[in-house]
Structure of Peptide deformylase:
Amino acid sequence: MMTTSPVERAADQFVTALAHWRVERGMSKKQLAARMGFDPSYVSHVEGRRHKPTEDFARRAEAVLGAGGAIWERFQEYDQLRHARSTALHRDPPVPVQWLPPGTGLIVEREVAELTFVDGTYRCRVRRALYNAGSEPVTRYLVKIAVDRYPNDPTGSNRHHREHPLTFDEMALVACAGEGDAIEPMQWRVKLDRDASKEIWLLFANERGQFALYPGERTTIEYAYTVGVEKWGQWFQRAVRLPTRRLTVRLDFPAGFDPQVWGVETSLAAEVPVRTPMERHDQGDRAVFEWSTDAPQLNARYRLEWRFRGANAPSYPAVAPSANNGNQRASGQMRGVGIVQRGSELLRQRARHFQLPREETEARETVDALLSALARLEQVHDFTKGVGLSAPQIGRSVAVAVVRAAGGESEPVVLLNPRVVGESADRDEQYEGCLSFFDYRGLVKRPERIDVEHARYDGTRVITTFERAMARLVAHEIDHLEGRLYVDRMNAESNLVPDYQRPWAV
């Protein structure tokens, strides 16, 4: 159905943002509704455009999903257009800006994490300003510590840490809570002790007694530990496990090591460079790198990586000695081939249709680029069940896709300006994957037959019928051209399944 007014377009954009961030956070509609304090069906009604979003709904969705303001911004655009039509319309009652999800416990108002290299060891120090936004006193705080000496060689790294396990004795963990003259040492208790990872409960208690953090109260905790260079790889990662208002990460290296530092933001959706530049400050013979972000995304991971170029710097081989390099993560292979990865705004935009035959040259050039990319893909993976590729996946927001049927022997089908004009009532549910989201797959129900109207280069249009496996592949690619991913079509109760080898349809 075509959107007919600016208000309806703005509502669609709000729903698109809501669905995108819900999927990115790995939540079903039912789970999101529960976190927001709504009836389980409410999110489905909003995403299905049966209910219009309210200010209360938008604020709660933004708070739960931590979308960096994207959901709230889309609602404001919709709300302004909606009320501009008539001054007589009733506005929703205002909602407090500081609304928090039901059951919210601790909030990290600020985290400062610092990693310092001195005399062959790394000293990590983390300082967190906490606010208890829950309804119960907090008596302990979970800390997770992990090392990975060879991040590019998981097998070799696991073997290395089995032979050289991280120990509490070498870590010399210390922790405290409070500020100024009211600092209290914190006792700690082991929850998990593995070769390369530890989980520790920091207790709001010591030999003098307990000092629980009560609802509405604030405090600052700080903990620090040491790891030798033989066990610490070239990365420092902060995982956002609690709602966090601000995150700052510092790396402090000898300037003589000639360090080069960069940052990566990783979520279920994508791995992209951090969105703001790294700052470097030289302090005597030290090189200090600092990076900060406001409102970091919940469940995201922010990783700073480095290499030392100085002659006297410690060596960091990419793989463990005598180790097998193993297989590169599948999404990394796709990125290396030139496939745009999930998280890019390009994959959420409706592709522009070609004006044919006037734009025949551009259309042919784009098809050639798609076929070249398809050839590179087939050198990386054997797509025995078929493969498809859309123009947005190679960075071009135009409405064309190519699809090769199972077996790989036939010529790819070229779809210019395609749209589904008919489909069967019979539907089949199968696992699908995506070249732009290659490490996971999910169950998707699609019609067993679709009728697709598409264009020739001369502008004439034809209708082609596709059935079964080919119908699924073609429907998947047409979804790409409409700014939709297969995860948007998954049942609300379905979960993504890791699949590091090969998805069903791409």
